[in-house]
Amino acid sequence: METTMISKILIANRGEIACRIMRTAKRLGIATVAVYSDEDMNALHVKTADQAVRLGPAKASESYLCIDKIIQAAQATGADAIHPGYGFLSENAQFAQACIENDLIFIGPSVDAIKAMGSKSAAKTIMQEAKVPLVPGYHGEQQSPELLAQEAEKIAYPVLLKAAAGGGGKGMRIVWQAEEFDSALAAAKREAQASFSDQIMLVEKYLTEPRHVEIQVFCDQHGNAVYLFERDCSVQRRHQKVVEEAPAPGLKAETRAAMGEAAVRAAQAINYCGAGTVEFLLDSDGKFYFMEMNTRLQVEHPVTEMITGQDLVEWQIIVANGQPLPMEQSALQINGHAMEVRIYAEDPNNEFLPCTGLIKQLIHPPESTHLRLDTGVSSGDSVGIHYDPMIAKLIVSGENRAQAIARMDQALNQYVLVGVTTNTHYLQSVINTQAFKHAQLTTDFVERHANAIADYQLDYDWPELATLACFALLSEQVKSTDVWYQNTRLNHHSKSSLALHINETLRTFEIISADDSYTIMSDNYTALSMQASMQNGRFNTLINDVKTTYVCYADGQSLLIANSQGQWRAQRQLANHLSDQEEQQDGAILAPMNGSLIALPVNSGDSVKKGDLLAIVEAMKMEHNIKAPANGVVTECHYQEGDLVEGGKQIMLISPEAEA
Ligand code: ADP
User: Fold this and answer.
1) 292 lines ligand 1 (CB under 6 A)
2) Ligand 1: which atom is nearest the Cα of residue 208?
3) Taking 90 as the threshold, does the pLDDT of residue 128 lie above it?
4) pLDDT average, residue stretch 106-111
5) DSSP per residue over 257-270, as a string?
6) Is the alpha carbon torsion for 87, 92, 98, 103 positive or negative?
C-alpha cells in the first residue's frame, strides 16, 4: 500500500521539547516549522527550526494556545503534520479535531481517546470495565457533599479528593479524618473551579507510602500494542516530578509484566493510537492501581529511550504515517539503568519561586551515549515570566543504578549556568541522599528526607579556596578601583591581596606570583603553591604534580570553576560596600519575583487583617499569594491588577495598626 509520508512537521510548542522533536525530524529528513511568541523570537527552538512562524504576544493564551493561529501557520508553511509536544494543546481534543478538519496529521491519539481520558472519573469507569485495577474510591456523577462524605467513610480515611478535570497536582486535597472533610471539599472545589472551570470531584483511598510507577505504551493503526516498560517517578515536589528513572528499582519481573499488560489493556479499551502513558500507584506489597492515562509524549520519555535504545518521537512519526509499530513486545528489552532530572529556573532557598533573568553563561557537560541534554535555552537567552520554569533535562544511563547516579552527579557538576538561579544543587542533594542511593522511593520522598536533602553541601576545602583565589587573580578584568584588590611589584615577584565572598563568608587572600607560579596564603591555612594558566576558557592548575582542569567563568563580580568533581563559586568583594538593594520602608510589601499581578483585591485606604490576601503574582504558570504580615491600613498602592511587576519592587505600603 502506497502512503504519503509526513515531509514537514509544525511543532506547536516551545523550549526543550520543541528542540527535541526537531532533532528526530531532522535525522529522518523531515522539514520542521517552529511557532513562537514575541518573547521567544530569538529562542533556541526558533533557531533550530527550518522555518518559524510568529503567533502573537507572549501570553500563552494569545500565542501557544491559539488553535486558529497554529493551524494557519501550518497551512502557510505547507506543513502536513503537527506535533503538539507536552503541555499547551497536547491533550486538547478540539485542537486534534481542528487538525483533522484541516487535513493536517495530528501526531497523537484520536479525538475520542483524548476525550475519554480527559476526565479522571470517566477514565476510571472505562478502566474498570477493562479490568484494570483502580484505587478504591468513588468516581460517580452524584456530587452532593453528604454522598461524597459517605463514600469517604466507606473506603476509610485518609482519603484524597481529586478534581475530575485536574492536572498538575491542582484541585487535590488529602483528608485525614471526617471532621476535615467539608472544608477540604470546599477548598478542592474552589481550586478546581478556578483552574479547570469544573468542580466534579472523585474520592480515592489515600495510599500513604506508594510509589509512582508509570508504563509507556505504544499502539499503531493496525491494532498492535506494546509496552516499553516502566518509569519510576516517585520523587516529586507538590505532586510534580523531580527525578525520573527506568527501570523502577526492585520491580519484580512478574509485576512489570502484569502492569505492562494492564496498561496495554487500558490503551486498547479506548482504541488508542500512538504514544501514551498509564500512571499507576504501586504499594509495598506489589499491588498496583490505575491513576490516569496521559495521551501524549511525557516529559520523562528519554529514560525509556535510554533503556530500550528506541526513539519514541520516531515511533510517533511512524505510527502517524500509518505504518506498523517498529517492534513486537518480545523484541523489546531493558538495557542498564537511566535517570532524568528536570532543571528548573527556580530558587530552592526561596520556596522554589521561579527565577527569571539573562543566562550569562551556559556550559554543558559533554554529551555521549551515556549522557544526553535536552535543552530549550542557550547562553545569552533570557528566562522570562510567561512559561514553565523547566529549562532543560539531563538524562544519563549506566550499566546499573549506582553508575547512573554517579554519572548524574558528575553531569550536574559540569552543567554550568550563570545568571539565573536553578535547582541543580538541590537535584544533587536529592540524588546524594542515602535514601535515594538505597532506592527508598515513595511519593513523599522529598518531605520525608527533607533534612538529609538540606544537609548536602559541596566541600570548599583549602585547595579549592586557594584555587578560586588564584582564578580570581588570573581572571582579573575589572578596574582595581571596582573591587577590593591591591597589587605591589617586588623585583620579579608581585604580591596581590584580594577578598572573596565564598558561601556567605568573606575571605581575604594574599598571593605572591612569579610568571605562572603562585603562592596563596589566607588566615589559618598553610601557604599553598601552584602553577596556573588560562587557555581557551579553561583554567588549569598544577599542585604537587597533580594537574586539574576546570571550565571557568568570570565577570565583574562572579567567579566560577567547575569540573566533574564539583562546581565552586565566589563573588569578588566590591570596593564600595553599597548594596544595590533599594532601601525599604517598614510595612513595604514587595514583589517576591518578576511576574504579573493577576489579583490585587485591596485599594489604598483599605484596612487589612494579618493573613489577608493582598495580591497574587503569577510567573511561569505558578501563583504566589502575598498576605498581610500584620493588621493595618494600606496607605499606598503603586500598581493595578494586570500590571507587570519586577521582583523586589514595592507593590504597596501598609501602615501597621498600633498594638492595643
Ligand atoms: P495530576 O493529574 O494533577 O498530576 P495525578 O492523579 O497524576 O494528578 O496524581 C499526582 C500525584 O499525586 C501522584 O503521582 C501521587 O504522588 C499522588 N497521588 C495521586 N493519587 C493518589 C492516591 N490515591 N494516594 C496517594 N497518592 C496519590
Assistant:
1) yes
2) 25
3) yes
4) 98
5) HHHHHHHHHHHHHT
6) positive
